[in-house]
TrEMBL record, chain A:
It is found in: Nucleus, Nucleolus. InterPro entries: RNA3'-term_phos_cycl_insert, RNA3'_phos_cyclase_dom, RNA3'_phos_cyclase_dom_sf, RNA3'_term_phos_cyc, RNA3'_term_phos_cyc_type_2, RNA3'_term_phos_cycl-like_CS, RNA3'P_cycl/enolpyr_Trfase_a/b, RPTC_insert. This is RNA 3'-terminal phosphate cyclase-like protein. The lineage of its organism: Eukaryota, Metazoa, Chordata, Craniata, Vertebrata. Gene3D superfamilies: RNA 3'-terminal phosphate cyclase domain, RNA 3'-terminal phosphate cyclase, insert domain. GO terms for biological process: endonucleolytic cleavage of tricistronic rRNA transcript (SSU-rRNA, 5.8S rRNA, LSU-rRNA); ribosomal small subunit biogenesis.
From TrEMBL, chain B:
Its main location: nucleus. InterPro entries: AARP2CN, Bms1/Tsr1, Bms1_N, BMS1_TSR1_C, G_Bms1/Tsr1_dom, P-loop_NTPase. Residues 434-450, 461-473, 517-538, 590-611 have a biased composition (Acidic residues). This is Ribosome biogenesis protein BMS1 homolog. Keywords: ATP-binding, GTP-binding, Hydrolase, Nucleotide-binding, Nucleus, Phosphoprotein, Ribosome biogenesis. It comes from Lipotes vexillifer (Yangtze river dolphin). Belongs to the TRAFAC class translation factor GTPase superfamily. Bms1-like GTPase family. BMS1 subfamily. The keyword Glycosyltransferase does not apply. It comes from the Eukaryota. Pfam families: AARP2CN (PF08142), RIBIOP_C (PF04950). The gene is BMS1.
Length: 373, 1283
């Protein structure tokens, strides 16, 4: 019988998003056991529950079973539905946590996704919405996901601990993805960024900009860091400031770095100058790692390569992050796909660290949700 | 006389020769030949009408674009699988004969009985798999899905039959492969004219079905029960040169048309329970897309399965290797048909041997060989029993050996067998020596020792009986194969034997060393050692097998070969050690990382380590059995599960980790061991390690693994320790950010310099550096003059270049490399120039379509090139098994009927399923009843669909979409219109065609395909509705408001429908207002007019219907042989009623009764007197009484005349007649007279008028003269007057 075939089983709450996203895309049910089973506070946390709720909202016919203590989760995916959705994210994690998964799923919906996410836009744990907008969206465009309705807008900025941010994300639907060959990152031609501040003095942003420029000017003159001071209802509920930087290369690769101030009641106050300088150095680190895809978006790129046509896709990455490594394993267990991994030593060129060339043949995925007219 | 007979020479008027002559003639005349007419006579080609020109341009463009297809990436493999040729036709039309003839045509072999597919080599680049298709609709559907070419046999003496049309329609739905018609039985026509007519008629009918101009072949007649050679040859030629367009479904799904099936079930299991689920292996060429291991497949007629193992085998019917010759030689004309029993087919794990036994096979004693092999293949009892009973004769005259004779060695390889070398197609005998050979005996002993040791160890360690048994079996097999190989090598020509001892020695040495290793390690590890040793040996042996093949083939230069072998072996050893050392570095890395607990990377690696450890710890029995190199790789899923299991204990350090990780970005200058990072980087530098880090073991470093386990695993205790150490990852923070663990100090100059070149300001590569390119260009084009400024730019200043040239020349003389480089430079220059020219020239021509095509071509090239240089083992890992490979697929849990009722005539297709195509949901499609199907389809009647690979019975609902998007349920499909259909069943990609049949059993006279269509949408819910009318009755009527009851049952229900629109039957519209307290369910409603008590009020609503979740795959292959076309599933209610004789109970109201109409009586119209008075006369009722009865008194008596009176009356009548006649005449005369008189009068009048006119004229003239005179006189004056 065709039903309930071959469910996968995992233990522990780590990589929950990966597992659920891949399960949704591959149609294989997944069972996750022992979620914080030995913890004082066992079971799923609020942000995970919120994520599962979000998945439920954008799919049709998903079956989710959670046991009493919340330590075991069974997820049988339905079909991706999409449409206009609103979701209040938990403020334990930023919107980036949810958005990363949505970026994976959004191109394969039945109706184009138009979603409003509310919560924390920038925090220190997850990639912020700004960075995703600056790096992930151009990446998706490489795969042929493009159009007027493809946008990510930050309506309100919300910082920890209060939250109150709002993000609007809309994405068109595709039946198939284009294969990519990103083997040459090109050279960085400009650096852009934004220093933002909410509910603090607007001067903070200017101070950040100056310090960041002082570091980066040694490399390239084409730097422009915008300042963004949101006021009133658009500024969320808590004060804070931060900076994100993105380096664009001649071949359309975006490398990013970001840093956010400590939120109220967490550690010592951070000087904006320090923050700017550190963030600039983080960007240099990212450039040192290099590759055609930002380190936060590695897994997204690999996923979309996997879901391409039965053609060869190639991408040059920096060192693989632990998240990506686990993601590759999951790709293997969900899609039986293995990547050819070639290390490209940097040689004499002064181009940062070693790179990894990832090659795969797409599985010939087609969007099963989209309606034929 | 002769001259008279000769024909007169006629000059040619057309053709190239005539043209030439004409041209010459014109040239002689000094005219014409001025290029083309367009230039000669430009006026004739001038634009006459812009509109017409635009139109003609439009038309040409339209025609051009019509030719375009959407370009697709060409994914056909380099060595494509054989083309599936389905020979289809009704019974007795000559299918088998045609197949036999075709096979004989291509291979010069005659197959008497054909069962299942037959694969043959038909040309240098093409192979064919020919399969016959009967008229069982199951078979027809299955084969239409895999066919590349259909030969449709038609009995010309009979004409088209239903099967032909059915098959055509099935093909159309499932992608339309190439179809070629073949007319047979043409010899039954006596008259040529009739034959011609029939041919034409059939041809045109065929064209309307396929496409105009489709090829129809004629097989004119039989000669000795076979078709004519020339015709068959032509047909074969057509098949071999035919081109195919890829079909969407076939290219996107891997599939296999199985040509071989084996039951691998443990005989013990079958003995205990004959109905137990079976494990089978299926062989065939992979077609379509790439097949991944562990993927889902569907076998039409059986069901869905997961592939438990895939491996590829050498091609049993390979294409010839050298391509120089024009045609195949006899040895290359292979045929492969295991089901038909072509040759005694033998197979090992990694080789399939075909015995042709035909034209070029040796006919020597094959018997004793087959005895054992056959008995092994068709295992009916356990292996022990088998072994006890089997005997082997080593030499034709020796006494047969029984298992006791062979001391504890498991099995012997058959003594003698024929093998076809796949490369050359040569058949050679494979023979075996006895155990006189010392070396082999030695090795045997050793192996025995090893084996027994292994057994002992296993006995002590493992409790599982079956596992042990299997292990033993495995080792037994292994021994067998090892020996077999050795023997095979040893038995050769004499001179070979001389060399052989060394050869065998080298082999043994290696083996011994491995064994020794194994024994040493036995002290340390208990179980692992066994498996590793075995694996190692396996690898070595397979290597040996590969090498061993060569000497056997060449037979001449054995010495060199054996040397080669030795070399390769040593090399192998070297690689072993190197890989080991490579791994050691990794080990160090691990060790160093152990120190720093916070490093998440270390956890990663430990994890992977652990994974390996676990794998070694619990070698899966199936893995051992398969003893395949890939085996371990395939089991990652299970092992990861186990790994997760072991990770269950929570490490409380995780909390700390969390904090450090989160604040890592800020506190990035905290002391983190630099060493760890370095180790990580060092480790990343070696590719296999990175790959292993991610995927665990891979094929290439199996050997490494072995070494690894030896060092890693001391015993159980250490394993558990490491397991507990690396557990804290499972519940750590789920974050995609890659934190910088060891930040560089970006204030240092050298660190800064390390990324200098990442910026546009840095140094560029040779080929991209602007300055360099400029310089090159300069070099290319040399001097040029700037016309504006008048500057002259020189490529290089004269003397300098000259000097350099001289220098270069000198250099060239010295260095041959320089010459080469110069040559290269020159070539580069040329290429560049050409590129530039091309770019300039082609610029205007490039369209979007061309670009798209170019892109696709580039992608296709990349696809081909990417994995080309890798060996198949590795390639399979990345790509999956690619089409064209001959694969063996193991499937578990197959119903026993599949094996028991196996019939090779029926095709076994293994269709690969895409992601989530194994799931079920609601499938919506656009459906149309087939115009040739006689009935219509009813909602909720079970029908059998064929969608994707599957055939299944399900219950569809038919609907039609209203203009507002509402999907309204239909009871029946419309007659000649599309409608929607929804069923609950397997998810199939949108755009897939399907067909429906009502039953697959038996043969119906009528057309069997009930409906066709396409899948539109997949979902997990449906929104089909049906109409529901709720009725109520007014019980109190006010002006426009009424109280209505009977529509609802409770106030709550009413509340739900507040504001809903209601209507009366007479058409008065209204609205529900509010529920009333009593009676229950009554409500107040307002209407646009006052109701009557007799009115019925109703409300139109829509009620969602549910689709029954019924999905029943057609398991026709599980039926007993001969009954496979009798599958019947759920019956419709109609069929059930018929079967049980239950009449439908009709509701009384719906019965028709004779209509009885009462005579209508109308009262007369009564107008009041007053009104009558006022009416005008015209409208007044006329009171003219009818001529009523005249009273008797008024009745006048009839007059009866006397004869005399009658005479008088007659006379009077006559007189009056005469008189009247006279009068009439007189009148006429008068009339004439009057007329004449009038004419005369008129004439007179005219005359009179004329006269008067003349008179007047005269008068006026006189008058005028007078007047003039007067005037004159007045001018003269009075004097004159006076005069």
């Amino acid at each position: 019988m065709a039903t309930q075939a071959h469910s996968l089983s995992y233990a522990g709450c780590n990589f929950l998003r990966q597992r659920l996203v891949l399960s949704t895309l591959s149609g294989r049910p997944v069972k996750i056991r022992k979620i914080r089973a030995r913890d004082d506070n066992p079971g799923l946390r609020d942000f995970e529950a919120s994520f599962i709720r979000l998945l439920d909202k954008i799919t049709n016919g998903s079956r989710i079973e959670i046991n009493q203590t919340g330590t075991t989760l069974y997820y049988q995916p339905g079909l991706l539905y999409g449409g206009s959705v609103e979701h209040d994210c938990s403020i334990l994690r930023s919107i980036g946590y949810y958005l990363e998964s949505l970026l994976c799923l959004a191109p394969f919906m039945k109706h184009p996704l138009r979603i409003v996410l509310r919560g924390v836009t920038n925090d220190q744990v997850d990639p912020s919405v700004d960075v995703l907008k600056a790096t992930a969206l151009p990446l998706l465009k490489q795969f042929g996901i493009d159009g007027e309705s493809f946008e990510l807008k930050i309506v309100r900025r919300g910082m920890l601990p209060g939250g109150g941010g709002e993000v609007f994300f809309s994405c068109p639907v595709r039946k198939v993805l284009k294969p990519i060959q990103l083997t040459d990152p090109g050279k960085i031609k400009r650096i852009r960024g934004m220093a933002y501040s909410v509910r603090v003095s607007p001067q903070m942003a200017n101070r950040i900009v100056d310090s960041a420029r002082s570091i980066l000017n040694k490399f390239i003159p084409d730097i422009y860091i915008y300042t963004d001071h949101m006021k009133g209802v658009n500024s969320g509920r808590s004060p804070g400031f931060g900076l994100w930087l993105v380096a664009e290369t001649t071949n359309g690769t975006f490398l990013s770095a970001e840093l956010v101030s400590n939120h109220q009641g967490q550690g010592a106050a951070v000087l904006p100058e320090d923050l700017g300088r550190n963030c600039a150095k983080l960007l240099l680190e990212e450039i040192h790692r290099g590759g055609c895809v930002d380190s936060t978006n590695q897994s997204l790129a690999l996923l979309l390569m996997t879901l391409g046509q039965q053609d060869v896709s190639k991408v040059l990455l920096g060192p693989l992050s632990p998240y990506t490594i686990e993601f590759l394993r999951h790709l293997k267990s969900f899609f039986q796909i293995m990547f050819k991994i070639e290390t490209k030593p940097c040689g004499e060129e002064l181009k940062g660290g070693d790179k990894v060339l990832m090659t795969c043949v797409g599985i010939g995925f087609s969007n099963l949700s989209k309606t034929l007219k | 006389m002769e001259t008279k007979d000769q024909k007169k020479h006629r000059r040619k008027n057309s053709g190239p020769k005539a043209e030439k002559k004409k041209k010459r003639h014109l040239r002689d005349l000094q005219l014409g030949d001025e290029e083309d007419a367009r230039k000669r006579n430009p006026k004739a080609f001038a634009v006459q009408s812009a509109v017409r020109m635009a139109r003609s341009f439009h038309r040409t463009q339209d025609l051009k674009t019509k030719k375009h297809h959407i370009p697709v990436v060409d994914r056909t493999p380099l060595e494509p699988p054989p083309i599936v040729v389905v020979v289809m036709g009704p019974p007795k039309v000559g299918k088998s004969t045609l197949i036999q003839c075709l096979i004989r045509n291509f291979t010069r072999q005659k197959l008497t009985e054909i069962r299942g597919p037959v694969t043959i080599v038909s040309g240098k680049k093409r192979r064919l798999t020919i399969i016959e298709c009967g008229c069982d609709i199951n078979m027809m559907i299955d084969l239409a899905k895999v066919a590349d070419l259909v030969l449709m046999l038609i009995d010309a003496s009979f004409g088209f039959e239903m099967e032909t049309f059915e098959f055509l329609n099935i093909c159309q739905v499932h992608g339309f492969p190439k179809i070629m018609g073949v007319l047979t039985h043409l010899d039954s026509f006596k008259y040529n004219k009739q034959l011609k007519k029939t041919k034409k008629r059939l041809k045109h009918r065929f064209w309307t079905e396929v496409y105009p101009g489709a090829k129809l072949f004629y097989l004119s007649g039989m000669v000795h029960g076979e078709y004519q050679n020339q015709e068959i040859h032509n047909l074969g030629r057509f098949i071999t040169v035919m081109k195919f367009r890829p079909l969407t479904w076939q290219t996107s799904h891997p599939y296999i048309l199985a040509d071989r099936m084996e039951d691998l079930t443990n005989p013990e299991d079958i003995r205990t329970n004959i109905k137990c689920d079976r494990k089978v292996s299926v062989y065939g060429y992979l077609r379509g897309g790439h097949l991944k291991n562990k993927s889902q497949i569907h076998i039409p007629g059986v069901g869905d399965f997961a592939v438990s193992d895939v491996s590829f085998l050498p091609d049993p019917c390979a294409l010839p290797e050298q391509q120089k010759k024009r045609c195949l030689n006899e040895k290359e004309k292979l045929v492969y048909a295991p089901f038909s029993g072509v040759g005694g087919v033998l197979y090992d794990k990694d080789a399939v041997y075909v015995d042709l036994g035909g034209s070029h096979g040796f006919q020597e004693s094959v018997r004793p060989t087959h005895e054992l092999v056959q008995s092994l293949i068709s295992t009916h009892s356990t292996i022990d029993a088998k072994m006890a009973s089997s005997r082997v004769t080593l030499f034709s005259d020796s006494k047969p050996l029984v298992s006791e004779d062979i001391d504890n060695q498991g099995l012997w390889m058959p003594k003698e067998e024929k093998q076809v070398d796949l490369k050359t197609g040569r058949v050679r005998r494979k023979a075996i020596f006895g155990d006189e050979e010392d070396d082999s005996g030695d090795s045997d002993d050793e192996e025995d020792k090893e084996m027994s040791e292994g057994d002992r160890l296993e006995n002590s360690s493992s409790d599982d009986e079956t596992e042990e048994g299997e292990d033993a079996e495995m080792t037994g097999k292994q021994c067998m194969s090892g020996k077999g190989i050795k023997r095979q090598k040893l038995e050769m020509e004499e001179d070979v034997e001389v060399d052989l001892p060394a050869f065998a020695d080298s082999d043994d040495d290696l083996e011994r060393s491995s064994v020794e290793e194994a024994t040493e390690e036995a002290d340390e590890s208990i179980e692992e050692e066994d498996s590793t040793a075995e694996e190692e040996r396996d690898i070595l042996e397979s290597k040996v097998v590969r090498e061993g093949g060569k000497p056997g083939l060449l037979q001449t230069d054995d010495l060199s070969d054996s040397l080669n072998l030795e070399k390769s072996l040593t090399m192998k050893k070297a690689t072993l050690t190197t890989s080991d050392s490579g791994h050691c570095t990794a080990e160090e890395a691990f060790a160093s990382e152990d120190e720093s607990e916070e490093n998440s990377l270390s956890t990663e690696e430990e994890d992977s380590e652990n994974e390996e450890v676990i794998r070694k710890k619990f070698p899966n029995p199936s893995q051992v059995v398969s003893s395949q190199k890939l085996g371990s790789e395939n089991l990652i899923d299970e092992t990861s599960d186990i790994e997760d299991l072991l990770r269950e204990e929570e490490d409380y350090k995780e909390e700390n980790d969390y904090s450090t990780e989160t604040s890592g970005a800020l506190k990035w200058k905290e002391d983190l061991s630099r060493k760890a990072a370095e180790a990580f980087l060092r480790q990343q530098q070696t590719t296999p390690n990175l790959r292993k880090l991610i995927y665990g073991t891979v094929t290439e470093d199996n050997e490494e693994e072995d070494g690894d386990t030896k060092e890693e695993l001391g015993g159980l205790f250490r394993v558990s320790q490491s397991a507990s150490e690396c557990k804290h990852k499972a519940d750590s923070l789920d974050c995609s950010r890659f934190h910088v663990e060891v930040p560089h100090d970006w204030d240092l100059e050298e660190v800064m310099n390390s990324i200098r070149d990442c910026f546009v300001t840095g140094k560029w590569e040779e080929d991209k550096d602007a300055a360099k390119i400029l310089a090159e260009d300069e070099e290319l084009y040399g001097d040029f003059e700037d016309l504006e400024t008048g500057d002259v730019h020189k490529g290089k200043s004269g003397p300098d270049t000259q000097v350099e040239d001289v220098e270069e020349e000198v250099k060239e003389e010295i260095d041959p490399n320089a010459e080469e480089s110069a040559k290269k430079k020159h070539l580069d220059k040329k290429r560049k120039l050409k590129e530039m020219f091309d770019a300039e020239y082609d610029e205007g021509e490039n369209t979007y379509f061309d670009d798209l095509k170019g892109e696709m071509q580039k992608q296709a090239q990349l696809n081909r090139a990417e994995f080309e240089d890798q060996d198949d083992e590795a390639r399979v890992q990345y790509e999956g098994f690619r089409p064209g490979m001959y694969v063996r697929i193991e499937i578990e849990n197959v119903p026993c009927e599949f094996v028991l009722n196996f019939d090779p005539h029926y095709p076994i297709i293994l269709g690969g399923l895409g992601n989530s195509e194994g799931n079920v949901g609601y499938v919506q499609m656009r459906l149309k009843k087939h115009r040739w199907y006689k009935k219509i389809l009813k909602s909720r009647d079970p029908v059998i669909f064929s969608v994707g690979w599957r055939r299944f019975q399900t219950i569809p609902l038919y609907y039609i979409e209203d203009h507002n998007g509402r999907q309204r349920l239909l009871k029946y499909t419309p007659q000649h219109m599309h409608c929607g259909a929804t069923f609950w069943g397997p998810i199939t990609p949108q755009g897939t065609g399907f067909l429906a049949v009502q039953s697959v059993s038996g043969i119906m006279a009528d057309f069997r395909i009930a409906a066709t269509g396409v899948v539109l949408d997949l979902d997990k819910s449906i929104k089909i509705v049906k109409k529901l009318k709720l009725t109520g009755f007014p019980y109190k009527i006010f002006k426009n408001t009424s109280f209505i009851k009977g529509m609802f049952n409770s106030a709550l229900e009413v509340a739900k429908f507040e504001g809903a629109v209601i209507r009366t039957v007479s058409g008065i519209r209204g609205q529900i207002k509010k529920a009333l307290r009593a009676p229950e369910g009554a409500f107040r409603a307002t209407f646009e007019d006052k109701l009557l008590m007799s009115d019925i009020v109703f409300m139109r609503t829509w009620y969602p219907v549910s689709v029954p979740a019924f999905y029943n795959p057609v398991t026709s292959l599980l039926k007993p042989a001969g009954e496979k076309d009798t599958w019947s599933g759920m019956r419709t209610t109609g069929q059930l009623r018929l079967a049980h004789g239950i009449k439908l109970k009709a509701s009384k109201d719906s019965l028709y009764k004779p209509v009885v109409r009462q005579k209508k009586h109308f009262n007369s119209l009564h107008i009041p007197k007053a009104l009558q008075k006022a009416l005008p006369f015209k409208s007044k009722p006329k009171t003219q009484a009818k001529a009523g009865k005249i009273p008797k008194d008024r009745l006048r008596p009839a007059v009866v005349r006397e004869p005399h009176e009658r005479k008088i009356l007659a006379l009077l009548d006559a007189l009056s007649t005469v008189h009247s006649e006279k009068m009439k005449k007189a009148k006429e005369q008068r009339h004439l007279h009057n007329k004449e008189h009038f004419k005369v009068k008129q004439k007179e009048e005219e005359e009179k008028l004329k006269r008067q006119k003349d008179l007047r004229k005269k008068l006026y003239r006189i008058q005028g003269q007078k007047e003039r005179r007067n005037q004159k006189s007045s001018l003269k004056g009075p004097e004159e007057q006076l005069k």
